Amino acid sequence: MQTLYWFTRDLRLHDNAALLAASRSDMLLCVYVVDPRWFTPGPFHCKTMGEHRWRFLWQSLMALERSLRLQGQRLHIAFGQPEKVIPELVSDYRIGRVIASRMPGTREARQWRHIRDCLPNTLCQQFETLSLYTEASLPMALEALPGSFSQFRKQVERAEEYHPESLRLRTVTALPPPPGFPEDNRGDCPPIPEPGHRTPFTGGEAAGLARLHDFLFISHNVARYKEARNALDDADAYSMISPWLANGSLSVREVAQALAEYERQHVKNDSTYWLWFELLWREYFHWYAHRHGADLFRRDGVQQKKHSASFYPHRFKAWCAGNTEYPLVNAAMNQLRKTGYISNRSRQIVASVLLNELELDWRYGAAWFEEQLVDYDVASNYGNWQYLAGVGADPRGHRQFNIRKQAEQFDPEGEFVTRWGGDASQPVGLHLVDAADWPV
Fold it and tell me: What is the mean pLDDT of residues 79-96?
């Protein structure tokens, strides 16, 4: 059988069930599609793909191509809309089977349905490669997914078969040949921007595995993770594996097994458990996105709680630009724009200000994070924003941070604010007198 494998958020050879299935073919065409719609502003005035994400993604694709060439394969990079590109390639190369990873997100689901409908005589298969567990192996039906993370975690942890040691990882060691080396149109893709600031992230499977190994077995920073993780700007305090997890250069199952191995070899404490705890949060939001579909992106959320629809353009612009009345927020937003990354604590602080002090629709914040964050993950991003806005998985409802106390606790000397230029020279206030800036 001749197979087309559509790479999406699974840019790796290790622990990739979809690629493993595709390897059982006579011929294999490996494809990645760069969608031009990623680079144009959407309904919330933000792009899907900002420069940091695009640079990291391209690095990851080039690393994947090098790995595939060692297997006698290559990566066909197409610039176009997947729902058009994939059927055209199927026709051109007489493909009998299309394989891809199953992804959360309504846009992704819609694209897959369109491709499948366009190819009624082609076997179209999806495999679950982004999560710890498959839907079939969850301890509950997807329709019965608990409304809170705590309930989900307890059900998972009560069952021994859901421990990391029970996960079976298999790595592709051989791939069938491609149909020659067909030319692609990767040259039409947007140019790769040079980083304007030093970044700790280089895309690719090898880089992701190296970061995981360093965090666990070289620096042993995982053993201090729970105490250090709330630092605002300390690379040694965080695992920083999320970018590679987000585009699938690193398997979450690989992370779970490496963590279990570290606990066997070295120490098992509250900090090592906290990394597992956060992997479960990621898992919960993954299935939460599958369970709730379009409700993940609606203003009133999965809880259908009515919220104000007002939008203050000058407030949103000031928040994005780091030009608000709140130096701590400005510093974090400046760091985000310059590097594509901010700490979990910073994300909560800036989100709280957008929701509460600036009184803005949470979806604008989620869209800005989608454009900027190098570790953007649709389920975790929108799930967390709904959580903080009080319209999602948080049983306590709306959450608000005291910004002054956050600054006193996490930046008492003002070092973070100084480092990232948080003291705006002319901060934009909440209210403007120009009638043209009335809320819309």
Answer: 96
